[in-house]
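Hello again, I could really use a second opinion on something today. I owe you a coffee for this, so here goes:
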Amino acid sequence: MQTSLDEFDYIVVGAGPAGCLLANRLSANPQHRVLLLEAGGRDNYAWIHIPVGYLFCIGNPRTDWCFKTEAQPGLQGRALSYPRGKVLGGCSSINGMIYMRGQAGDYDGWAADGNPGWSWNEVLPLFKKSENHFAGDSQYHGAAGEWRIERQRLSWPILDAFQRAAEQSGIASIEDFNQGDNEGCGYFQVNQKAGIRWNAAKAFLKPIRQRPNLTVLTGVEVDRVQLDKGRASAVSARWQGQAKIFKARKEIVLCAGAVGSPGILQRSGIGPRPLLQRLGIGIAHELPGVGGNLQDHLQLRMIYKLQNARTLNQIAGSLWGKMGMGLRYLYDRSGPLSMAPSQLGAFARSGPEQTSANLEYHVQPLSLERFGEPLHAFPAFTASVCDLRPQSRGRIEIRSADPQEAPLIQPNYLSHPEDLRVAADAIRLTRRIVSAPALQAFKPVEYLPGDSLQSEEELHEAAARIGTTIFHPVGTCRMGNDTDAVVDAELRVHGIPGLRIADASIMPRITSGNTCSPTLMIAEKAAQLILNPDTRSIAPPKELVTHP
């Protein structure tokens, strides 16, 4: 038997970065009754807040959905772990804390494809609105917002040497990756406050927890959206072991991410007809693109053994080293425990034919065989490089109507020939950087994939062997105005009044960098569109497919 709670004006599904920000903005008007639903738990696990604690959060069912991809033909048949946040704050509670917007061209490209309002000049004020930037207010940054951005609290000689080597290889040093052109090498800015992770729950929910018009419920697994005469009117969910109906007077906004949002739509009978028919789900509204267009950044983890260098491998490899790290963090919230997973970044072009940086490096003073395993016993660093604009496309589909069954995740990594070509060029560029004079005092030796691999075919094989996700899935509810688009430029689901999506799933193409803060910008845009109708500049959404 289902029971009904009182109606709300707005229901936000998913308390990741987008959901936390949107709930904050919508509830700022005391006349709006807002419900925020999160399937995971509270963010009261200590390792969420200590930056290095991502090691204990990813792969932990307390904080991570622990999804797996299908076996990937392009990765020698390997299935990858696919972490997604399962806690208040979502992925901002378990990610690498890197503050990155991407490139101006990303957003200008969205707008040029028929999505008015999404150009760089139009979204820059939205980025600035939520920022609390350490450098204060400026042309490119804001200081009055909630999303704290700071410099990292430590540096490493080996990373400083890599930066000099990059400069010797033609990649100039850069102070700020977030002014529209991120080409260059420098230390990442991070979402931390005084050496503690700054997740979206702290930023956008904790300061407003006393608002009487905002209800936040955890442990609520949303099954589907209910339609009333074609309009989204309620969500069906399970909470505390009971079936619940949560009704919305005005709008429902899905913020469940690139994995969760298409799954909710598909279980609601909104999606590709063949999938819904195969699973025996009634077709409420056919939208062929739901779950398609999956994009992700595939990182190639190149590891170099070193001499004459002190890296985290040695420090964390001894009891005294671990004690020293703990004491230093207790003293002033610095040292290795305050580390983001990657400290130094670089954006570069894989070849002269590229018009802007199409590679991103995450450089780390550590190495390990694979995530979740111990650090190597020898000193080493990792230069992880990813193709920022992959051509491969995948899909996410539910396997059944049961919301507790993990979805099918098929990224199709390296399935496009261009991605293989860029991967080979990325390995060659990394080798040029590491062979530059600035690093020679450390006598680097390529441990992974191994410098005996030289031909184009061998480098393709190397990419397939060492490639792994860097956790940036997007695009599965794509914004646009064609028959495969899921939402329009105002984030309204085509053909379903009262329903929007505001998360990374709406990206037509992946941004040129880490995806957390662009997702916050998307939510800021959604709030603007919902609360300020005069900002709208396009016609009402059209019915792309007739209701069956």
User: Anything to note?
Assistant: The first strand starts at residue 3 and ends at 4. Residues 1-147+197-297+395-406+473-548 form a domain with the FAD/NAD(P)-binding domain fold (CATH 3.50.50.60). DSSP finds 14 helices and 25 strands in the chain. Confidence is low (pLDDT under 50) at residues 537-548.
